[in-house]
Design a protein that fits this description.
The structure is a homodimer of 243-residue chains. Chain A is an alpha/beta fold. The first copy, chain A, folds into two domains: 124 residues, Tetrapyrrole methylase, N-terminal domain (Cobalt-precorrin-4 Transmethylase, domain 1); 101 residues, 2-Layer Sandwich (Methyltransferase, Cobalt-precorrin-4 Transmethylase, Domain 2). Chain A has a five-stranded parallel beta sheet with strand order 3-2-4-1-5, sandwiched between helices. Chain A has a five-stranded mixed beta sheet with strand order 6-7-10-8-9, with helices on both faces. In chain A, strand 2, helix 2 and strand 3 form a beta-alpha-beta unit. In chain A, helix 3 crosses helix 4. The relative contact order of chain A is 0.15. The model of chain A has no long low-confidence stretch (mean pLDDT 94). At the A-B interface, helix 1, helix 4, strand 5, helix 5 and strand 6 of A face helix 1, helix 4, strand 5, helix 5 and strand 6 of B.
Chain lengths: 243, 243
């Protein structure tokens, strides 16, 4: 029977794709890639483009608008889930690709919910991917956590209070999507003495990757939408920070 | 110039190794694998064994004892760092392999500290790996976090108070190394109403992988050393829990 695969392709570097993801993508009949708007490039698709063969495989880019309008979002998810289910029902293996990991802050989670409730007969297999925080830590040589240390991930959209609380109680905190609160976050990192233990990363794994560990350089930068920060309580022995 | 690579090989499934890790491992002159005791099998080495060629590559298993004796641990780390640095200085590319990701609860963090302080001239490149929690969530089809949700990872060795606090404040909490506190954790999951939203995983990616989402089955199981749990505040639309 055909399968709906959700394939995490990692942060955007074709080499940080797993062997399993590559195998499934080379064999799939249909590859579905989310784009924020029709005509926009899909980072996930660019990451795996070299594995695909247009003559043999169908590649479908579906718009997943970045909008707070819940109805519009649900429409997009339902459309995508329907395309996936219909194709699997016709005997075609479908691979829905996502940047990072399909179950860690990914749109695929909504599709999974719709598939499970409305097409419970469609077999779904999920292929994990390298998360952006692991790729960023590796690119910057900054240890995340060791031994008994505790680790938190907070999307900046959860609010500055959640960030302050997490920093006070966790050894290492990853802040995602920092752009909207960037000024507040910088101020709070100064107040809590984290200027020497913060890594900033954006577009990690791509040709335009930027990794900063010097706080003044971080503060002078204008982050893009998918930027993240790794904030440690203390400098790690192996980390190369400049404050 | 030769390079010291730290290569995350993921949870233990050869297919969940990245293309980059495979390329580096096939080309390295020396592969260093940690084992808990001389003669014990190395899970990391078994994971990548099929990429290696004994005739062309040297494979060295170094003991990293599981002991609370800090002096003994530091000795093991210093020995490994010395072997890596000496080989790189002789022009050999060295790959130190770790299960999961090299900077996320990995012994490599200690080696990195020693290499940076004592052999600062040795180039180190870190290859991220699939974390056990991403692989476990994928194997169990359980979403981790979405949108503004907050995520925490707590090693059970941090203590039950830290676990209780994290569960009260985070949408999803991953508990690592649950064996020593397993009874206490089960009791606390019952008290906080998480019996319908907990996934248990061990040896994920291996042939002996066990994934449980039925709480009574979880409670009846005797976990092994590297078991983990994913505890959600609420059932996800796409998750298949049985309580």
């Amino acid at each position: 029977m055909a399968v709906a695969y959700a394939v995490g392709v990692g942060p955007g570097d074709p080499e940080l794709v797993t062997r399993k993801a590559e195998r499934i993508l080379r064999a799939a009949d249909l590859i579905v890639a989310p784009v924020s708007r029709a005509g926009e490039p899909s980072v996930a698709l660019e990451t795996v483009r070299s594995f695909l063969d247009d003559r043999r495989q169908q590649i479908l880019q579906l718009p997943f608008p970045m909008t707070p309008d819940r109805d519009q979002l649900v429409d997009a998810w339902r459309t995508a889930a329907g395309v996936i289910a219909d194709n699997v029902a016709s005997g075609r293996d479908v691979a829905f690709i996502t940047i990072g990991d399909p179950l860690f802050y990914s749109t695929f989670i909504y599709l999974l919910g719709i598939l499970r409730s409305e097409w419970p007969g469609v077999p779904v297999e999920i292929v994990p991917g390298i998360t952006s925080f692991c790729a960023s830590a590796a690119a910057g040589s900054v240890p995340l956590v060791e031994a008994d240390e505790c680790f938190a991930v907070i999307p900046a959209t959860a609010g500055i209070e959640r960030i302050i609380e997490a920093l006070s109680r966790f050894d290492t905190v990853v802040l995602l999507k920092v752009r909207p609160l960037f000024g507040d976050i910088l101020e709070m990192l100064r107040q809590t003495g984290r200027t020497g233990t913060t890594l900033f990363a954006e577009r990690v794994g791509s040709e335009r990757q930027l990794i900063l560990t010097d706080f003044e350089q971080i503060a002078a930068h204008t982050p893009d939408y998918l930027s993240l920060m790794v904030v440690r309580r203390s400098p790690a022995p192996g980390a190369s920070f400049h404050s």
